[in-house]
Amino acid sequence: MQCTCIAPNRAYVVRTMAKMRAVQISKPNAQLQLVERNIPDPRPGTVRIKLEACGICHSDSGVVSGVLPGIEYPRVPGHEVLGFIDAVGTGVASWKAGDRVGVGWNGGYDGTCDACRRGEFFACVTQQVAGATFDGGYADYMIAPTSALARAPAELVATEGAPLLCAGVTTFNGLRNSGALGGDLVAILGIGGLGHLAVQYAAKMGFRTVAIARGRDKESLARKLGAVHYIDGAATNVAAELLKLGGAKVILATATSSKAMSDALGGLGPGGKLVVIGVGPEPIEASPFLLLSGNRSIAGWYSGVSIDSQDTLAFSLLSGVRPMVEVFPLEQAPQAYARMMSGAARFRVVLSMTNS
Ligand SMILES: [Zn+2]
Ligand SMILES: [Zn+2]
């Protein structure tokens, strides 16, 4: 698109507006589509980010399919974003061009609603979602409110840092808020996109880390990532195996099988907690007697807000936790998305804007 201006000398000049690549979804269940757009300018209270990389998360399917309510189309998905600020809007004081930043699922909060005033920013009533309520990271540039920004260390490789903004913070924050202490038995249920990070975080936090998956395929990897025990959920009774190890203080459920969660519950020790971060459609079944007789509980943990993401990036750098990634150039976003949806990726699929 071009804009035509009349110069003071009345001669016509044509100014070509700067363009960028974006991958959008035009309506629910349409194909992802590579388009050219004008590079947007930051509004007051927001920054423009020149993107290095963006992870593709299963939650993006909620935007592609239209399952997430209230989305306006066309929409650019993407909420595992890493890049550099290259322009700031008016009223932005604490961020500047050149700052390296990340943006995750939580796309900002207002700081004024009752939930925010109680410090529960994740529950903000006007909460925004990156790549859902505003355009996200499947593009060369995006605009984000400052409340969505996490400071990103320079040392992180972009394509390894991006998945930490959703898969990373979800597992890291779930574990550090679980109540488990160093030395406690902590089980990671499911070794996939979330689980392979959770095993690393749990080991680095000093937990006796148990990896649980179906079959033996992932055992050697799980042990390499830091698990000291491995339970084959297809061949053994998970609850009984956990009890043999003393009973879990925490089971972090990263898989989407509610049945697997129900089956593992009996492996909680006294005061143990099943922390749910994987989402399946079926209900979890629990014996009331099991819960009350051992002070056991089932809880969910919302991923985190921008400061949690910042902590996740810093901890990952400190401890050496990194995702295993498959990298695609931005223009191959449809193939990359299909690869993620296939469930066969090992383990996170990431778009790179710099290696096209
Ligand atoms: Zn996500
Ligand atoms: Zn709020």
Shape: globular
Helical element count? 11
Beta-strand segment tally = 17
Determine the fraction of residues in helical runs and give it as a percent range: 10-25%
Rg, alpha carbons: 22 Å
The separation of the N and C termini measures 23 Å
* Major sheet: 7 strands, mixed
Helix/strand class: alpha/beta
Q: What bound compounds does this protein have?
A: zinc ion
List keywords for this structure.
binds zinc ion, six-stranded parallel sheet, seven-stranded mixed sheet, single chain, alpha/beta, 24% helix
Task: Please provide a written account of the structure.
The chain has eleven helices and 17 strands. The chain starts with a strand and ends with a strand. Helix 5 links the parallel strand 10 (185-189) and strand 11 (208-213). Strands 5, 6, 7, 8, 9, 16 and 17 form a seven-stranded mixed β-sheet that branches. A six-stranded parallel β-sheet has the order 12-11-10-13-14-15, with helices on both faces. The chain is an alpha/beta fold. 24% of the residues lie in helices and 28% in strands. One zinc ion is lined by residues 57, 59, 79, 105, 166.
In short:
The protein is α/β, with parallel strands linked by helices and 356 residues long. The longest helix has 14 residues, at 306-319. The protein has 11 helices and 17 strands.
